[in-house]
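Newbie here. two chains, one complex. Structure please?
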Amino acid sequence: MRLPDEFSFSCPLKINCGTRALANLPAELSAFNANAPLILASRDQVGRKRVSTVIDAFRTSGLTLGIYDRLPGQPQPDLMPVLARMYRDGGCDSVIVLGHGSVVDTAKCLNLMVSTGFHGRTDDSGGDAADPGPLRPLMLVATSGGNGDEVTGYASDGVRRLCSPRLIPTVAFIDPAMMEDRNDRDVVDGALIALVHAVEAFLDDTAGPMCRAYAHSAIGLIVNHLPAVLRKTDRKKNLCAAVNGQVAAGCAFFSSSPGVCHVLATGLKQGTDLPLGFLMAILLPHMLAEAGFNQPERVGELLYPMVGADIFAVTAADLKTPRTIALFWEFFDALNAELSLKIPTSIGDAELTDEQIKRIQSRLARGSIDDHVARILEGARHGVTAIDD
Amino acid sequence: MHVPGYYEFFCPVKTVAGHHALEKIPQLLNDLGAQRPMIITDKGVVAAGLVDTVSAAITPGIQMGALTDDVPPDSDLKVVVQLAGVYRESGCDAIIAVGGGSVMDTAKGVNILVSENTEDLMQFSGAGILARPLKPLMAIPTTAGTGSEVTQVAVIADHVRNLKMPFASYFLLPDLAVLDPRMTLTLPPAITAATAMDALTHAVEAYTCLAKNPLSDAHALLAIELIGQNLLNVLNEPENADGRLALAVASNLAGVAFSNAMVGMVHTLGHSVGAVCGVPHGACMAILLPYGLEYNMHKNGYLTAQLLLPLSGARVYAQTPAHLRAQQTVAAIRQLNQRLHQETGGRHARFFKEITGPDGSARVPVESLEAIADKALGDGSILCNPEELDRDDLLMVMSHAWAGKPLDRNLVKKGDLKIR
């Protein structure tokens, strides 16, 4: 393994994963010197029963809880001062959030506001962002349907997108009791976003081995457990493992540079109703084929977390990259066998027009990556990886 | 990929690594809101010129508050209290620990006293007693082995009352670990070998013992790969900065792995040999690692087998029949010890019998084995070992490791419990 000449890594998140993980909520709060949490959730998203499950974890703790379980599905800037007042008037000293998406964004922004009075100059537009300093503990109770973004330092307050390592939750609890029976499309969408983020972090030359360790775990957990989730085999246990992978992927993603698939798929998303994760999945094999020309050894190393030591070791060095790409196709096929809405094999199948693709290409591709991006898009348009030629 | 029923994983320490990592310290301190750091180190580190290297790298942007090299080889309460006084008198606002395990422990102890504004360290002894963040602490390890720059524990000895005070808290974790190969370039070959084997043992036990999890596994595999690829190269070419950086990073990865997955009987016996006979920790780990793997092989041989890939590479792994891979992993570690023995002119011991003191006497006399076994029974790391150990087992393993004979696995009492 070749190390970058210089790198740094930081992941302030603690992960508590597995059976009865939630039982440790009071102890973890106490370890971080907090004992009056405000619980935030969207009852529509996680259901009343799961809110009760979290509250039950405090039954013998003697702690007083604040609870607001009617967060909306989209961030509402007007709600923030109301929540902040609730937090302060209730004498709260920490936040517990259940779920994913905008609910978690709201919790991150609230924590920023009540900890520092900070209103969000920490944007990810490359500006001169000020460090808000340490925040109060934020506990995340993960549920299925997330994509790893919950554990990053990114958040949207409904007006702007914030970025700071300080926004990263303190502890993520991944408990089978919180794994919802959501529709498969949402679960797969989130898992695919996380998977592609993990793969791109794995391939990031500048990210360093700590980031790679998180990415390695994420890839192995998602690839090995997501198909079983869809087949309803020991579903909660496998969901728990897949969500574990998503959390690890979020950690890796925040510690690396956004990759080509992430950037391209975000652009393509504007022209289609197809879920973002499905778009990223279409692009992934083509990105790998392209990367395989420049750094074949690195791409081939992806085989290890996907299939384990035995197959990795017996696969010839020059076949590792094509085998990796083939495995991703097989993985998508395995998911498609259980999905009603299939992962398309090409951008064409995603009903994006050539015009839209060209517009996005010209907007996204700059300088030396022009050819690189063009080849990925060209391959994805037809659904044939260059490695097959 | 092994997913346990429940696990926890945590390492919030920011790691900054590279050939010019030291030059980043001013900015890193600034990010922590610190301007007058106190450097805590020991005389060996100063004599090696490492503090000069650190000072030269950071003084353009930072005014040093104080520098002390009074840390003894074994951390001491009186020194901790004295250094806390120096910190306060000098108006410092952060600590930079430059050194090995004792320096890190001392720095953590000082940080408790100055952050809590007290002279009484004892009241914070135990797990989870600290209730709030401490002053900024930066760790710059000068050996590539202990991984103590990423651990949340410290042990301070009170030599007056003859007791050791353990401390465990998230708040003890350093804010930053700075890994720069210049800090280990001058490490003598024998210490390079022993400390790297310490790191290898952390990674191997984290991967093969009971508290493993997907994230500790990934850290352990990368650590083993880096050590396997770089240790002998560094011994052949001590000023190989890329190799030195790789070993420092491997030590850090192994530290993260074992502090989230615990260790097993290699540490159980190693701690005991260190306590009874005063043998350096790394030397104990290097000798005992193959024995620990052999002892547990009927329980976790499939995990030991997997380690052949990062340790010896894909070709060796593929060429070794599956049922022999675990034994081949053990053989590879023994071969590594043999090579280290040769490369260090015999200073790297392969078994306990060949460790001698300055006067040529045996450091681990055969009569001490019973005392070692007795003491090992009380070591906490015994809990995460895959196979149970009683006094006879410990004595049996020690007698093999003392004489340098491969373990007679027919003598292992195989428990009925399966690992789930």
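Moderator note: Chain B touches chain A through 53 residues (CB under 8 Å). Chain B has a mean pLDDT of 94. Thread marked as resolved.
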